[in-house]
Design brief:
Length: 203
């Protein structure tokens, strides 16, 4: 049975890919196209049929992974009001000025455009040597403030309190489902002590 956050992710991504056409995936976080140097993620295989029907592009700050667009999220090389939707998964913790990055996505989105974001809160340090550093973590309050200009902001925590702790420990990180059950049992599944947040925004 799917958990709340995976259901949220699938619902919002399906909304984007059925209601919008011009979609930019910053960093290629969906990991659905190996042509962009990404490892494929099984959990997103269901998107393959949807991606074929839209104008889907990957943007990255360097050309190493063969993005469609080379550019920095903090200074997007795109016109105002020109993109239907952004996907921004596990990117904002790696940029020097995440609030500036969010403002840039807002600027480039068309009125009514969508933005789907994942950012971590209680999560381990994960830079990539020679490519990007790991600068920030984000609380629920920080998410609300950073996304304040959008007309709609839906926020979903990823993991409850106990499964978040388990995910930080190597011995338990691949076995968090039992902790998900315990979180549900003790009412901790919607805790703000969480691994991170999925955020769906509308301009």
């Amino acid at each position: 049975m799917a958990n709340t956050w995976d259901e949220f992710s699938k619902e919002k991504l399906k909304k984007i890919f059925t209601e919008k056409n011009n979609i930019v995936d910053i960093g290629g976080g969906l990991r659905v196209e190996s042509s962009h140097g990404n490892r494929l993620e099984e959990k997103n295989e269901w998107l393959e049929g949807y991606i074929e029907k839209v104008d889907y592009k990957v943007l990255d700050k360097v050309p190493d992974y063969k993005p469609d667009i080379v550019g920095d999220i903090q200074d997007l090389p795109l016109d105002d009001n020109s993109v239907d939707a952004f996907i921004c998964i596990a990117i904002l913790e790696h940029v020097e000025e995440p609030q500036k990055a969010v403002r840039e996505m807002y600027r480039v989105l068309k009125p009514g455009g969508y933005c789907f974001i994942y950012i971590p809160f209680l999560y381990y340090y994960h830079p990539m040597q020679g490519y990007y550093k790991d600068f920030y973590r984000f609380t629920y309050d920080g998410v609300e403030y950073m996304c304040r200009d959008f007309s709609q902001v839906d926020i979903q925590n990823v993991r409850g309190a106990l499964s978040t702790v388990a995910n930080l420990l190597p011995v338990f990180s691949k076995r968090t489902k039992v902790f998900d059950f315990i979180d549900k049992l003790f009412g901790k599944i919607n805790s703000k002590q969480t691994s991170g947040y999925y955020i769906f925004c509308k301009k």
